[in-house]
Design brief:
The complex is a heterodimer of chains A (131) and B (464). By secondary structure, chain A is of the alpha+beta class. Chain A contains four helices and nine strands, in the order βββαβββββααβα. Chain A has a six-stranded antiparallel β-sheet with strand order 1-2-3-9-8-5. Chain A has a three-stranded antiparallel β-sheet with strand order 4-6-7. In chain A, a hairpin with a 4-residue loop joins β2 and β3. Chain A is globular, with a radius of gyration of 14 Å. The relative contact order of chain A is 0.25. Chain B is α/β, with parallel strands linked by helices and 464 residues long. Chain B has two domains: 117 residues, Aspartate Aminotransferase, domain 1 (Alpha-Beta Complex), CATH 3.90.1150; 264 residues, Aspartate Aminotransferase, domain 2 (3-Layer(aba) Sandwich). The radius of gyration of chain B is 25 Å and the shape is globular. The chains are: A alpha+beta (131), B alpha/beta (464). Chains A and B meet through β4 and β6 of A and loops of B.
Chain lengths: 131, 464
């Protein structure tokens, strides 16, 4: 069973989001997603300063066997991107919830979070997808 | 078992199984006005003997004439070994199987081709080839729009000195994707991009600037200045180049401070016969950082489990068999046989040999310019540097001059005034583009001049 931290929120398309107290949201893909993709070789991230809407394509994660869109779970302005992925895309495989994060946004609409799945619901969604 | 996969009996059984009356019925859902209908203009079948005779007659119309027409397709000497090797069964008949890595020989050849093209263009990576130069330019435009994240527009600046047919082809390909091509005027006296016309676009949002080197008139653009200007405006610089010329002049990778970002062009000069316009092949090269936006096949060198060298398709994750509708491009094939011939051509000649061909072409062209400057009534319009083409103005109808010279066995050039291009009204009336490659002897050049003098005398006083 893959690792699904209880404190995060999820999209059924396998993105996670962590919201800090100051309203900064960090986005990445889940352990389950990295497992499905296999070795990640490249991550295309949004431009710092650009504005994303919830559900919008924010980038592309490319593994040896597939290239998949990253959808933004929340709306907001991109504050920072994880530059280390350029040299070390393997962080997405080895540590998807910490070193393998993708980008941070300044949350503009907290109600976006209500649309997202909790850990249990996400686990159930993965389970359903597997069958 | 018959070799033919669908016998009448097979077809009948398949139709029965799916409950269709006829094969035509399978196409019922296509509205009749969208169907091609019957091909009325195609004559009925003829015997092999009749066809051989017909084609021999047609072939005779080609023979003998001295060709001074370039304009995108160039006559160069092709050593007999090129097609002798390329036509070997292993190359000629091999279709890359779906497990491409089973064809190590083909993959190695393509890998060598890619290496040669990066050497010629001075850029980091090349793909396995594209359909032709014009579609290559379209792919470069699409690539620039995907890759240039500083640009929010879907607009691209295209120098008016880029081959008119390339601009037409690109327009056909990109227009339905809401991409706008904006033309930059050229200076009709220098025949290069007008820098003041370009400056008028300063501060506007464009994804890229497309530059031709040498340009459609054979003239050399100030590519360093153009590239630096594009980069200062946050545009990518795309070079449409003649690979033969790139050995004599700065390759795209060395244009300006940082080099052009993408180079494309027509590969025909590298060992492919003129052959009535095709098949040729296109090439595309780019900087490493754009490689994930490059369309088509790329072959990489790797090692297998035992550490033995091998060749493999690489960077496929964005192609259509994986990404479907979100693929980087829908290019899923390349011109394998033409590329095989070009790779053999480049191997046989080497960098030095190709440079000698380019130098000889340059020398012949400039010798012809010298001879023509002594012919009264005609004017060499091209000023400044040319590679192996130049623009010549004749005092009477250029169409009539070309026709008259053709009757004397000289195909004297490409008519600019007949072209339905943007060249109309641009001061290039009765102008032709003339090309003399290394295939021309001193006698050939003299014959050109004599034929021109005869035609001019004959046509003297004819209304333009």
């Amino acid at each position: 069973m893959s690792n699904i931290p209880a404190e995060l929120k999820y999209l059924p398309s396998h993105e996670w989001v962590r919201v800090d107290d100051d309203g900064t949201a960090t986005i990445g893909i889940t352990d389950h997603a990295q497992d499905l993709l296999g070795d990640v070789v490249f991550v295309e991230l949004p431009e710092v300063g650009s504005t994303l809407n919830a559900g919008e394509e924010a980038g592309v994660v490319e593994s040896v066997k597939a290239a998949s869109d990253i959808f933004s779970p929340v709306s907001g302005e991109v504050l920072e991107i994880n530059d280390t992925l350029e040299e070390s895309p393997d962080f997405v495989n080895s540590d998807p919830y910490n070193d393998g994060w993708f980008y941070k946004v300044k949350l503009t609409d907290e109600s976006d979070l209500d649309e997202l799945l909790g850990a249990d619901a996400y686990a159930a969604a993965c389970e359903a997808e597997d069958h | 078992m018959p070799f033919i996969p669908h016998t009448e009996d097979d077809i009948r059984k398949m139709l029965e199984t799916i409950g269709a009356q006829s094969i035509d019925q399978l196409f019922d859902e296509i509205p009749s006005h969208l169907r091609a209908g019957s091909l009325d203009a195609v004559p009925s079948a003829r015997s092999e003997m009749e066809i051989t005779r017909l084609l021999s007659e047609r072939a005779q119309q080609d023979s003998g004439a001295l060709c001074f027409i370039g304009a995108g397709a160039y006559e160069h000497h092709i050593p007999a070994a090129v097609w002798d090797v390329a036509a070997r069964g292993e190359f000629m008949t091999a279709y890359t199987p779906y497990q491409a890595e089973a064809s190590q020989g083909t993959l190695q050849l393509v890998y060598e081709f890619q290496s040669m093209m990066t050497a010629i263009t001075g850029l980091d990576v090349s793909n396995a080839s594209l359909y032709d130069g014009a579609s290559g330019m379209a792919e470069a435009v699409l690539m620039a729009i995907r890759a240039n994240r500083k640009s929010k527009s879907k607009r691209v600046l295209v120098a008016g000195t880029v081959h008119p047919l390339y601009r037409d082809a690109v327009k056909s390909i990109v227009t339905n994707q809401q991409i706008e091509l904006v033309e930059v005027a050229f200076d009709t006296s220098t025949l290069v991009t007008d820098f003041s016309a370009l400056s008028a676009f300063e501060g506007e949002d464009f994804a890229a600037l497309v530059i031709a080197q040498p340009n459609f008139f054979g003239s050399l653009e100030d590519v360093h200045r153009l590239t630096d200007w594009a980069h200062a405006q946050n545009m990518l610089a795309i070079g449409v180049i003649n690979p033969m010329a790139a050995t004599l002049i700065s390759p795209p990778g060395e244009w300006g401070e940082n080099g052009a970002d993408i180079a494309v062009g027509e590969g025909q000069p590298l060992g492919i016969p003129l052959a009535s316009g095709g098949p040729y092949f296109g090439f595309i090269c780019c900087k490493q950082k754009l490689v994930r936006q490059m369309p088509g096949r790329i072959i990489g060198r790797t090692v297998d489990l035992d550490g033995k060298e091998g060749f493999t398709l690489t960077l496929q994750a964005r192609e259509q068999h994986i990404r479907r509708s979100k693929a980087t491009s829908n290019i899923c094939t390349n011109q394998g046989l033409a590329v095989t011939a070009a790779t053999i051509y480049m191997s046989l000649l080497g960098h030095e040999g190709i440079e000698r061909v380019a130098r000889a072409s340059y020398a012949n062209t400039h010798r012809l310019i010298g001879l023509l400057s002594a012919v009264s009534g005609v004017e060499v319009v091209s000023q400044g540097s040319c590679f192996h083409e130049f623009v010549l103005r004749v005092p009477v109808s250029s169409r009539l001059v070309l026709e008259h010279m053709a009757k004397q066995g000289v195909l004297a050039g490409h008519d600019l005034s007949s072209a339905d291009f943007t060249l109309n009204g641009s001061g290039l009336k009765n102008c032709i583009v003339v090309c003399a490659t290394e295939t021309k002897t001193e006698q050939d050049l003299n014959d050109y001049v004599s034929a021109l003098e005869v035609s001019l005398k004959e046509l003297e006083g004819v209304e333009c």
